[in-house]
Design brief:
Strand content: 15-25%
Oligomer: single chain
Shape: globular
Radius of gyration: 28 Å
Amino acid sequence: MRTSQPKTIYLKDYRVPDFLVDHVDLRFELYEDGARVHSTLSLRRNPEAFDNRGALELDGDSLKLESVALDGAILEIGQYEDLGDKLVVAEVPDAFELKAVTWIEPQNNTRLEGLYKSSGMFCTQCEAEGFRCITFFPDRPDVMSRFRTRIEADKSSYPILLSNGNDVERGDLADGRHFVTWEDPFPKPCYLFALVAGDLVEKRDTFTTLSGRNIDLRMYVEPRNSEKCEHAMDSLKRSMRWDEEVYGREYDLDIFMIVAVDDFNMGAMENKGLNIFNSSCVLASQETATDLAFQRIEAIVAHEYFHNWSGNRVTCRDWFQLSLKEGFTVFRDSQFSSDMGSPTVKRIEDVTLLRTAQFAEDGGPMAHPVRPASYMEISNFYTLTIYEKGAEVVRMIHTLLSPDLFRKGSDLYFERHDGQAVTTDDFVKAMEDASGRDLSQFRLWYEQAGTPVLNISDSYDEQTGIYHLTVEQSIPDTPGQQDKQPQHIPFALGLLDSSGNDIPLKMADGDDDAPTERVLELTEASHTFEFNDVREQPVPSLLRQFSAPVRVAYPWTREQLEFLMSHDSDGFNRWDAGQRLAVDVISSLVDAPDDAEIEPRLVAAYRHLMSDTSLDQALVAKMLQLPSEAYLIELADSPDVQAIHQARERVLTHLAVSLREDLLACYLRIVTTGAYELTPEAIAGRSLRNTALAWLLHIDDKEGRDLAVSQFREAYNMTDRLGALRALVNSGFVADREQALETFYQQFSGDPQVVEQWFSVQSSSPSTGSLDQVRQLMSHEAFDWKNPNKVRSVIGVFAGQNLAAFHAADGSGYRFLADQVSRLDDSNPQIAARLVTPLTRWKKFAPVHGDQMKVALEQIRDKEGLSRDVYEVVHKSLAG
């Protein structure tokens, strides 16, 4: 394992590879005590390299080198150097063949990088730098090669042998072994290499492309999961058709495969033709998966499939360009999900994640641009900034150019760079060339870290009918970046009259057909926009559809926010107005006396929402969810976590008491009997019903308790069963809670993905997620330190969602997390590094919390043999 102190890698130091690998021939001999890897590389010096006479250097990690040969001649010690993390051959010709035989131990690979075993199955994870854990290779994304892979293993234990490309040869060997050879006709970087060997059930289907080609679709799962494949397969086919119709991208191989793996650090991996998924991100049935899980699976299947073009056929030149593939593909999967369901709800979900978590990342010690300038360990840069903010950057280009011109730009990008490893500049240049737009200033979105702040003021002249809107932008300092330049920001705007109607936005004389919504383009530090023929003081609807990832500061009154909640034609801004009103009310109670009045407008607004059945019920379900504690903490300066928790609980209790009859009526009018459906309407109904139930149980309503117990017993889908369980767990009905938890576990103890939900419900709840109770969960028979999903569902959920318990005044939550991170660092540094995140914002909190969080970070820092992954996060968090 790489545990040496990491060095910083800089984008400015990028150099093209000294050697190119035209072809890779791999032979894997898989055994129970290890694997022997025979690698044959066809190499040649890169004519564009700075040094065309230097030694050959190949990356390696945790490899036992058995032999190495140059053009068929075995090399002796002295003719090469095995440095552990490098294989160096000093004297090589301009073109040659290098053969290496390495021995690795997948069964002992707890890092889950390279080749490892999961539940008796061999599988790989090579992004970002896992291939070097398999064999010596120039492990960088700009070395693209054609792969031929032969896998040999015991036939009875591993009847299924898979790799990238097409199955070209198979047969039996001596001693009950067999082999399969796979050939991938497309050059790819080694991070896209994949291998799977196991005793798996195969599920088949077909897809006919718009050009008439038949594609063989296969899913491979453990036998116990054979009935959970239908939704993912249908999602795959929808994704394939959508990508053809919206982006003109047809699948290029004859076969597309998906494999489900229980032990996986990530959600899924887009390996060319052989996608490997975390089981939780692909397996689903109505009995075991919630509506949200079904939607998440559809989105992740689409995301990994879309990578076939935006990531595989066109890949990133270096890891600084990671958002080239991830940001673009997240944008594409978000478009797809919007088309498959409710666009407004999808936008709300995306922005909630962005505001709560990515904005926090922008304001923390690990803040970095969408295209970072440096890193120590690349695995730490699979961040929300790369993915979610990167997607928002692409979305802004889509907004500025229009859908038609964006499609022309994407077509040009894929045509121009097919089979290449390129940069974010290449992507933006294709958009410029296709549209004729100058995006020079827009490129700052890739270069500057931090969340821009828009301070907005306005004035209205009743005599002239002129409305002025002034927008001033600024970007806070972030580590290594100060005094930032103004960015190019698309700012969508509407104005409402007193009846709630959209006002035509006339900006010049003769503008008779003025639209009621405009996308203004901010390019300066300050802009003032003038709108004519405005007949009354308007209420501004700002940043419609969240047209840019920015913070908006405007002095809305509570009356205006309630008005926008009821009348704004932009569904996203209706939700946003409700969130802002709730935030304002909750924040006002943080330091208020216990008898302080709670804003009556909030009750009135929520009552109106629940009673108006003409509204989009999916939007209503979202609007009834109060801002999370994590979001409230993010908005506060030196937040008092306990006070925020108590204020939010107080508002929720007040709403539930005041709206009890409305909640009961809402619950009872939504009928959930009949066949389970995944339509937006059915999903909205279940969401609204379970929200009402949760609010009733929050105040320990006895009628609500009876409804929850009945729903739990009679539920025929996991959404309603888990909704009832969560409501009971968060209630004061202790006996019912314990009975429901026991019943749930006994029913689903054999299903790892459902058990993970059972863990999460408890570790996230103030009622069952105390530190002592979380430790008990870690001692449970179903908890497994080697499984990232189990670790995340208990430790990660406790630290990230059960914030009042995690931020206990005595610092016990911080010390607990430091202990678990230190333990995990020895076995799985990637997961350990991600778990550190809640401690990294220590400077944001008042000293009573911040000082203890810092001590916990120092405890991790001082651990002997700290991994490079955790080292970077901890040292950057403590710096300055």
